[in-house]
Design goal:
The complex is a heterotrimer of chains A (about 100), B (about 625) and C (about 190). Chain A has about 100 residues and is an all-alpha fold. Chain A is built from three helices and no strands. Helix content of chain A is about 75%, strand content about 0%. In chain A, helix 1 runs antiparallel to helix 2. Chain A is elongated. Chain B is about 75% helix and about 5% strand. The radius of gyration of chain B is 31 Å and the shape is globular. By secondary structure, chain C is an all-alpha fold. Chain C contains seven helices and no strands. The longest helix of chain C is centred in the middle third of the chain and has 26 residues. Chain C is extended. Classes of the chains: A mainly alpha (about 100), B mainly alpha (about 625), C mainly alpha (about 190). At the B-C interface, helix 25 of B face helix 4 of C.
Amino acid sequence: MNSVGPGYYLILSALMFTIGVLGVLVRRNAIVIFMFIELMLNAVNLAFVTFARMHGEVVGQVLVFFVLVVAAAEVVVGLAIILVMFRHRESANVDDVNLLKW
Amino acid sequence: MELTTLAAGAIYLPLFTAFVLLFFGKRLESGALGDRLAGWTGWLASAAIGGSFAASIVLFFKVIAEPEHHREFVVKIFDWIRVGSFDVAFDLLVDPLSAVMLLVVTGVGTLIHVYSIGYMHGDDRYPRFFAYLNLFAASMLLLVLANNVLLLYVGWEGVGLCSYLLIGFWFEKPSASNAAKKAFIVNRIGDFAFLLGIFLLSTTVGSLTLGQINEHAGAMGAGIATIVSLLLFAGATGKSAQIPLYIWLPDAMEGPTPVSALIHAATMVTAGVYMVARLSPVFEAGDALVVVAWIGALTALWAALMAATEYDIKRVLAYSTVSQLGYMFLAHGVHAYSAGIFHLVTHAFFKALMFLCAGAVMHALAGETDMRKMGGLRKVMPITGLTFMAGWLAISGVVPFAGFFSKDAILASAWQQGRYALWAIGVATALLTAFYMSRMYFRVFEGRLKVPDGVHAHDAPWTMAAALVPLGVLAVVGGVINLPGALTLEHFLEPVVGESHVPEGLTPWLLAGAALAVAAMGILLARALYMTRSSSLRRRVLYARFGPLIDAARNKFYVDELYGRTIVLPGKRLAAFASDVVDARIVDGSITGIGRVMASFSEGFRRIQTGYVRSYALVFLLGAVAVLAVLVVRVS
Amino acid sequence: MTWEHVIFGVVFVVALGSSLAMLFMRNAVHVALYLVAAQVALALAFLLQGAFFIAAVQIIVYAGAIMVLFLFVIMLLGVDKREALIEPLPAQRPLAIGLGALLAAEIIYVAAKGLELVTGAGANAEALDAINRDPGNVKALAHLLFSRYLLPFEVTSVLLVVAIVGVMVLARRMTIHDRIASQPEETVGEVA
């Protein structure tokens, strides 16, 4: 085998994605949760690029471009929300936002 | 006048009047017209049933006008039920038997209506009384004229209803409303059996028309015929107060006395006797007649024992009715149907008469019914006393009064068929009958004058006397309709109930002599115990010898208590169980239980909304894993 | 064992290791830094796969701008707050790990199955290299971006503007006006 097969990259992508999910579920700091979401997006980017290579097309990379842009916009807005939340409660702990319950 | 109009009119007239009185009676009585003609609703009702009586007379003559075996007329009113092959029409049957019944019901009925005008004077619900009386008359006429068993049953139920309404007429008295309920419920038991009999008839014969049933009675087979007969007879024991369902009749005396006279002496209770005579081919086809005869005989004796110890004048008459009805069934049981009907007619005369006299006595003595508080009333109430005497002698079986001939016919038929046991019971009952009736007559009307304190006794007003006198006459001469030798009634009824076997030769004279002797013994016994100076001593001696028996008889042999313990109490417990356990806990419980289960389910389920974002995220992951699992399955 | 394999091994270890490390760091700044490391490793992976432009953009935008923004906010909200170790929600960690493992397994399985269907895995890498050589990676991307995907491109510009406006609205300090306007209406004493 000459080059690294796409399978390996996909495995890496899957694992990073799973770690991102775990991070979202386990961590309590809102900003840290956000960073794990970014990690998930990165994993997906890797998958796209791998597919682009697999199919011999550049389209996959175009999609990565869009993902990047959207991630940027999303980060900006999300952090603003966290800011407002922090101003209200003096805490960045996601467990403190629990009024909508039974 | 046409047959249809007469027959239908006889029923419609009192029926229509009943409804008029029910809906407008109160208003009409209280208006300006009412003040001027106080009690005119009573006259209206009497006129209605008088009209039926007139119609009955015309019908009778029409029936006689035909030759002997062409005396059956079916009057079609309208088509009633037609479902598939089940066809029951609203038809009336006019034949010798129904003609006789018509005359009795309407004749005695009219007299009692007139009597009630005086008796019920001043009652708050005066118009309603007459409405009920008329309704009863209409139902009884329907029963008697019905051409099929279902229509007969309608009339049967109708008279049961009116009996309930009239017994409980003074429903403010708990004893009265209880008696009414008891009557209705006990009747219901009999009616249920009757209904089963009708079902069986419908399935085996295929038709409910009397003609069809009687024609094909033989084809039913002895077994089915016996079962049907027993079921029908069970219905008769309820309506006609025989063992085991007689218990309602003594209590029914709570109702006004005219009601007791009409319904519980002359007409309603005789419906069972009529029904058995009407369906005699069915009874003949099976083996049930022996049951009929024995129950009749035993009831006659049993009731006579109780009558001999009663102090309440109406109750004596009530037990007497039960006893005499037993005689009628005894007659039917020995195939002497016409004798049974003959006794029905004469009994209607003298028993209704005696009840009306008792009513007159109560009317005069401000409602007193205890014979120990009365005495020598014939001196102040001559008409009542004289007519009662006629009834007393008639029921005791003294020649030439009516009762002698009818009772003698029954006993002679029993002897002639070799049923000596039944004959002996009948004779013993006759002795007791003479005894207790004489006892009542002597204590109430003879001897020293004795009335309750503060009461001024007077004889009956003319409206009441107007009923007493005709009945008294009939009690005296009524026997003429079926004198031995001529046997007019028997021949008249022959096409309907078949031939009867009249003893020939010396035997009938000996039997008649025996009956007379027994009657004399009873009267003399009563005289010895109640009229002579050493009477009270003799009574004490008798009581010392037969104390327990006498006390038991006075307490109705504790039959009511027995029924209460064995039937009513378990029934009440079952009802309590059904309502408190089954209904309240099981049915209601399961419904509310479902509600509670749902509530607790959602109580538990709502805890999913923890409020924590991370829990929700976990659920997202769960969902994602599940969806991917589907994909995995599809890919592999 | 070519140099590609070696570099891939490095990439693999750094990316995965940094991700795992992120999970265990209690200080938010440490988490951010490890994320940067992972992103740089991924940029290297992109280079290996022939996505040159994307690799550059990854570094410039993601690691360079977005992560800097993250760090700004972390500083703003308290840099030395350390996250507690105890997990208040019952069964959250075990369930997360279990389901996570399941997720990874499923994704890898489906990907593996998918790869079987595609003929000659990696065979088309030559096609990509050809594109990268002839019009060049940037030109090829630009060609697609401004022809077939022009609409999404313009839409994303709008998205960026919207995001900016939204952030400005969200994050400004409340003026007196806002404070009065957001107070609940006084209904006591009002008639009709």
